[in-house]
Design a protein that fits this description.
By secondary structure, this protein is an alpha/beta fold. It is built from 12 helices and 10 strands. It has 2 domains: 214 residues, 3-Layer(aba) Sandwich (Rossmann fold); 103 residues, 3-Layer(aba) Sandwich (Rossmann fold), CATH 3.40.50. α2 crosses α3.
């Protein structure tokens, strides 16, 4: 994290911590190091801050953004939009975000607070239809003077941002942490697990690690059931077109920035296990992560228990990094989170608390009981000395 004065909020993008998830590892019987790259600590609250900053700065250098005139238009699940709205608020560009209906109210509220215009689109609309968030963005770009779509789905600065920052930060954190008898380390990033939305994150991190650090690193992509990003394609057949609640990962098309050659294995996750993983990481590790972080963790746990991953799981010192892309801030009104927070079963302390409060009420009631006329209360016995 920066230890000096920053010129603006864009200086607070990235440089997020890599944190041990020891309790989760222990609960699952793993001997490896399970490490979470905690992206909600970035200035805008998610991993997407990185690509928003990179895309805006690259467009400025290329002369594609004109101060006082350009209107940035972006179709997004929300987090890229928030990163762009933050960057454009600082730099003085107008912003329009097209957002599918299923995305949270919190995302819309944050976008509007940052000065962005928000257009909601039907979640069920196919990506290439005029009604989709992509179709609406393209129409607005055609008709609004100086409108520009930076296009996270095709922009090379999406994976490049992760190759130059996220991946490098992961490598540096692992390499600079010494191996000790209590906390052994291979000194390498042995496995990375990340969810795929545009695919830029998993692609860029993979390139950083395999090109410069450990070409034998296993990169695992996580794709929600109902999406078609995983390969082989038959992984997607059973739940093809199914609706899923988790936000920010999965698509009904394969974005250009996702390079399947950079991903060694794929896992499909469902909403139930994703949200269970969110609860586990909150309760055991104190990290307030969002639903797609739960998907990544659920995928990591399943891979480490599989035939492909069990040797890693049973090897002290092996470093398994899970990308946790955002925090719970954007999902606090969602039914799945309210169920976790407000409808969980009684804790071990709840019975004790109830007994204490009931006993206090009983004592208070006895002290306030009226004395019947003509009846004298017994005096307390004298204290013994």
């Amino acid at each position: 994290m920066p230890s000096h004065i920053l010129d603006n909020a864009l200086g607070g993008v990235g440089n997020t911590p890599l944190i041990r998830l020891d309790k989760i590892a222990s609960a699952n019987g793993f001997k490896c190091n399970l490490l979470g790259k905690v992206e909600f600590m970035s200035a805008g609250g998610s991993v997407k801050d990185r690509i928003a900053k990179a895309m805006v700065e690259a467009a400025e250098k290329e002369g594609k953004l004109i101060a006082g005139k350009s209107v940035v238009i972006e179709p997004t699940s929300g987090n890229t939009g928030i990163g762009l709205a933050m960057a454009c608020a600082i730099k003085g560009y107008s912003v329009i975000i097209t957002l599918p209906d299923k995305m949270s109210l919190e995302k819309e509220a944050i976008l509007r607070a940052l000065g962005a215009e928000v257009i909601r689109t039907p979640t069920a609309a196919a990506w290439d239809s005029d009604e989709s968030h992509i179709g609406v963005a393209k129409r607005l770009q055609r008709e609004i003077p100086y409108g520009i779509i930076l296009d996270q789905y095709r922009n090379v600065n999406n994976p490049l941002a992760h190759e130059l920052t996220t991946g490098v930060e992961i490598i540096d954190a692992v390499v600079s942490t010494p191996s000790t008898p209590l906390k052994p380390s291979s000194g390498k990033v042995d496995v990375v697990v990340a969810g795929a939305g545009t695919g830029g994150t998993v692609t860029g991190i993979s390139r950083a690690i395999k090109k410069t650090h450990n070409k034998g690193c296993t990169v695992v992509g996580v794709d929600p059931k109902g999406s078609i990003l995983a390969i082989p394609a038959d992984l997607n057949v059973e739940d093809d077109g199914a609706q899923y609640v988790v936000e920010g990962i999965g698509y009904d098309f394969v974005p250009d920035v996702l390079d399947h050659d950079d991903v060694d294995a794929w896992l499909k996750t469902d909403d139930e296990e994703s949200f269970a993983a969110v609860q586990a990481i909150m309760r055991s590790e104190g990290l307030l992560v969002g639903g797609s972080s739960g998907s990544a963790l659920a995928g990591a746990l399943r891979w480490l228990k599989s035939d492909a991953g069990k040797d890693i799981a049973n090897s002290p010192g092996k470093n398994v990094v899970v990308l946790l892309p955002d925090g719970i801030r954007n999902y606090m009104s969602k039914p799945w989170f309210l169920k976790i927070a407000m409808e969980s079963g009684p804790t071990p302390l709840s019975g004790t608390i109830a007994q204490i409060l009931e006993r206090k009420e009983s004592v208070k009631g006895a002290e306030q009981s009226p004395t019947l006329p003509g009846v004298q209360t017994a005096s307390p016995p004298p204290a013994s000395h």
